[in-house]
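[Discussion] Sanity-checking designs against the backbone

I'm trying to build intuition for which residues belong where. Below is a structure token string of 118 positions. I'd appreciate it if someone posts a full sequence so I can compare it with mine line by line.
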């Protein structure tokens, strides 16, 4: 993950540009606050949800008529799949810890270590 841009680097959006008004300005503020990588992850997750909600059912002829826009989606699909693989690998790498109720207390450990008095 890339860290957000340092506050020491001043950045202003020139007035009168499309990025200076409306939702675009809000997007610029979010980019400055969270960084590009975080926003790309949000966009990829949103795209995945939209695709699940409205599955793509266009035919090859429709895709060709629209200029092959499905090829544009492939990088996003690869990014989503890679993120899922990384999360699954991270989950597998976590150590299996005992349930908290099975972890002995200090008193219990001291009793186990103390020599048995006969």
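Best answer:
Here's mine. Compare freely.
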């Amino acid at each position: 993950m890339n860290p957000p841009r340092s506050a020491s680097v001043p950045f202003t959006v020139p007035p009168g540009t499309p990025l200076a008004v409306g939702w675009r300005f809000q997007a610029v503020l979010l980019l400055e606050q969270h960084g590009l990588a975080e926003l790309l992850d949000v966009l990829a997750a949103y795209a995945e949800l939209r695709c699940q909600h409205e599955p793509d059912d266009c035919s090859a002829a429709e895709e060709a008529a629209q200029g092959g826009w499905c090829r544009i989606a492939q990088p996003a699909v690869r990014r989503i799949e890679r993120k899922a693989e990384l999360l699954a690998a991270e989950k597998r790498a976590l150590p299996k810890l005992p349930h908290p109720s099975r972890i002995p207390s200090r008193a219990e450990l001291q009793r186990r270590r103390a020599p048995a008095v006969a």
